[in-house]
Design brief:
single chain, alpha/beta, Rossmann fold, DNA polymerase, domain 1, Ubiquitin-like (UB roll), 3 domains, six-stranded mixed sheet, three-stranded mixed sheet, 12 strands, flat
């Protein structure tokens, strides 16, 4: 599962990517400096993992990770191939969620592909390009389904009606995720991997003065997306990128405090991206290793076991489950057992975020 960073050229995408991954993607002040997508595997900040490290004192700690992709800047006309548009739109199609970066700061030294700073206009530019590409995909599919629906094929008729409904929404400049469709109808659209059906969050890239409470540009973005059920995160990308370059933790914290922040905005963004991808964490804890494992929300105990090794899933017998809060309260697994707080769960158990798990299996 991966989230793609999108936006117009020069809005701070590659700087944000560097900030998140500490990779040094080329970040230049001109369009198309990012052509091949940069891919980074980013640790998910989790205070629970730090607490478990304190309690268990393991040899090593392994955090959960999320994959972030830095996709080159889109421009007006991308859906028709402008500015290497087809390639970039293809890169977006391969991701599972979108992080849309909007420029919300003034700086005459950083060029903007459009005249003047207007994040709502920029959002609209990207939206239209993605909507047009989706409309193209739906129209192609409609041509194929039309013949089958005319023969009285019930499934084909349902798909045709759904595609028509989605096409009408896109023609009205609505993204697929905001079109009123049932779950069954959305199933017909899944194979198309529509760009505007992917979950999205917005990053308002601000200067350091607006790092805490935003500015007028941020307010305009929040107003524009209020009906989208999308999170808006304020981030002083350039400043935070500079802070990540500092070697000492104490020094980094001092600079964050000067900005009025308790933690990097990037940490908040990584957690938001993890949630956007419908991911959650369970833990295993022992003297050798404390580890956060990534699973999908709704996964069963055998599916969670399979993330460690496929044999664990195939030969699953049961799971021993401790709630994170209980582990912190009692301090050790033995004390949790003595308190009667260790649960035994079978194949149907739906794993909860923060569960501490031990699997019994037989292959």
């Amino acid at each position: 599962m991966k989230a793609g960073i999108v936006g117009l050229p020069n809005v701070g995408k590659s700087t944000l990517f560097n900030c998140l991954s500490n990779a040094k993607a080329q970040s230049a002040n001109f369009p198309f400096c990012t052509i091949e997508p940069n891919i980074g595997v980013v640790n998910v900040p989790d205070s629970r993992l730090q607490k478990l490290e304190e309690l268990v004192n393991p040899e090593r700690v392994m955090p959960a990770t999320v994959e972030i992709v830095d996709i080159a800047g889109l421009v007006k006309g991308a859906s028709k191939g402008e500015g290497l548009g087809n390639k970039f739109l293809g890169n977006i199609r391969e991701t599972d969620a979108i992080i849309h970066v909007l420029r919300c700061f003034d700086n005459d030294n950083i060029v903007h592909v459009e005249e003047g700073i207007d994040p709502v206009r920029d959002k609209g530019t990207i939206d239209v390009e993605l909507q047009l590409k989706d409309l193209e995909a739906i129209e192609k599919r409609l041509e194929k389904v039309k013949k089958a629906s005319r023969t009285g094929d019930k499934e084909a008729t349902k798909e045709f009606d759904t595609l028509t409904k989605a096409a009408q929404g896109l023609e009205g400049f609505n993204s697929v995720r905001s079109i009123d469709l049932t779950e069954d109808e959305r199933e017909y659209l899944k194979p198309l991997q529509l760009l505007t059906d992917k979950p999205i969050l917005y990053v308002c890239n601000v200067d350091d003065k607006a790092a805490v409470s935003g500015n007028a540009y941020v307010d305009a973005v929040k107003e524009a997306v209020k009906d989208e059920d999308a999170e808006v995160i304020i981030l002083a990308v350039a400043t935070e990128a500079d802070i990540t370059e500092l070697e000492e933790y104490e020094e980094r914290q001092m600079f964050l405090e000067d900005l009025g922040l308790k933690e990097p905005g990037a940490s908040k963004l990584i957690r938001a991206a993890y949630k956007l991808l419908n991911l959650q964490t369970y833990f295993t804890a022992g003297v050798k290793e404390v580890r956060a494992w990534t699973i999908n929300v709704g996964d069963t105990a055998p599916q969670a076991a399979g993330v460690i090794h496929t044999d664990f899933e195939k030969g699953f017998i049961r799971a021993e489950v401790i709630k994170y809060d209980d582990y912190v309260l009692y301090g050790t697994e033995a004390k949790v057992r003595d308190a009667g707080k260790l649960g035994i769960e079978g194949k149907e158990y739906i794993v909860q975020d923060g569960d501490m798990m031990n699997f019994r299996f037989n292959v």
